[in-house]
Design brief:
CapF_C; six-stranded mixed β-sheet; about 30% strand; alpha/beta; five-stranded parallel β-sheet; Jelly Rolls; globular; Rossmann fold; RmlC-like_jellyroll; about 30% helix
Length: about 375
């Protein structure tokens, strides 16, 4: 268990690193903000006594000259602060790029940044990261995956300008490599890549979107399929979170079609919950989980890890809907009615106590954000 300081903690990679640290049970990292980097004394104070500094902040888009200058300046600011620290960390981990030194302003600036950090003399882990994708990536900035997912979630279609080869790594795997977390069944610090083409990626995501619009789960037969689907789902939440379910009744009783999964493993279970009782209060990194209230009334509430606002759904078994839990959001369900609550749960994997992918986290930590559904 290490005490870390992080630059760029509010960015795409930084957020995923903080979520992984939460799952690992490590201390909350010290955050070095862009404002902190303007003052070497402040940086020195932030890094004093930590075990390691993760330099994740960078400039990826914009005018080439600004990109080049920005990456070098950020590394120089970190280096100045480290040199002033009376008790500096044992090492620095730099989120570099496989494009480092490739002759472009971005690539050459990343190589220069690595050299600047190495000159501090604390020991540098220069981790050259490929193209990263994952939940809540910023469209038109972090990854083509995020761009395609956003377009599809808004009922648009990806536009292919160049059908080039892609090598994609899920951002949680990159986070594990940065913090030195050993591989598990949930994350893999070896950063296994998905090799595909832009057109193939667009078709794959479009297929997921079309299937999910019907309330169905697409074929999730490998780890990248699960993570690409979870990335798409992150762009659907909360606007497309209530999935109406077919309900049929005759003289024998009623039938509700709650889950249609096209391929891959899965597990279904039901629970009863007494009035006022809460279930959940945890989050998942990769698991797809569906809640369907079949009898009674409940509130399902969710909070994105690292934030305070809570999204709430009021659901009723008289009008059944499916609510799928987004990955990296703490969630819970509470019986709000006077009678016993009957809920069906479905996950895309059979529960494994050795790798449950379930991390305790309260939902209620701050003011509510919004209530959705009825």
């Amino acid at each position: 268990m290490l005490r870390l300081a992080i630059t760029g903690a509010g960015g795409f990679l930084g957020w995923h690193v903080r979520v992984l640290l939460r799952a690992l049970g490590w201390p909350e990292p010290v955050r070095i903000t862009a404002h902190d980097l303007t003052d070497p004394a402040t940086v020195a104070d932030r890094v004093t006594g930590v075990d390691r500094v993760l330099h994740l902040a960078g400039v990826n888009r914009g005018d080439p000259a600004d990109v080049a200058a920005g990456n070098v300046q950020l590394a120089a600011a970190v280096a100045r602060g480290l040199r002033r620290s009376p008790n500096p960390p044992a090492g620095i981990v730099f989120a570099n790029s496989v494009q480092a030194g490739n002759g472009t302003p971005y690539g050459d600036s990343k190589a220069s940044a690595a050299a600047t950090l190495a000159d501090v003399g604390l020991g540098l882990v220069d981790l050259r990261l490929p193209n990263l994708y994952g939940e809540h990536g910023r469209p038109h900035y972090n990854s083509v995956v995020g761009t395609f997912c956003r377009l599809l979630a808004d009922d648009g279609a990806p536009d292919i300008h160049e059908d080039r080869d892609l090598s994609l790594v899920h951002v949680t795997d990159a986070a594990a490599a940065l913090v030195g977390a050993p591989a598990t069944g949930v994350w893999d610090s070896g950063m296994p890549a998905l090799h595909t083409k832009v057109g193939e990626l667009a078709d794959r995501l479009a297929g997921y979107a079309a299937t999910y619009r019907r309330g169905e789960i697409p074929a999730l037969d490998d780890r990248h399929a699960v993570r690409l689907f979870n990335t798409y789902r992150s762009h659907c939440f909360p606007q497309r979170s209530l999935i109406p379910l077919p309900r049929r009744a005759d003289h024998r009783g009623e039938l509700v079609e709650s889950v249609k999964a096209h391929a891959g493993p899965g597990q279904t279970f039901c629970s009863t919950t007494h009035p006022g009782v809460v279930r959940g209060e945890h989050f998942h990194l990769a698991k797809v989980e569906r809640f369907v209230v079949l009898r009674g009334r409940a509130e399902i509430s969710l909070r994105r890890i690292g934030e305070q606002g809570v999204t709430r759904f009021a659901v009723d078994g008289a009008d059944p809907v499916a609510v799928d839990m987004p990955t990296m959001w703490a969630h819970r369900i509470v019986n709000t009615g006077p009678e016993e609550l009957l809920t069906m749960f479905w996950t895309n994997e059979i529960f494994d106590p050795e790798r449950p992918d379930t991390y305790p986290e309260p939902v209620e930590v701050g003011p509510s954000r919004v209530a959705v559904g009825a």
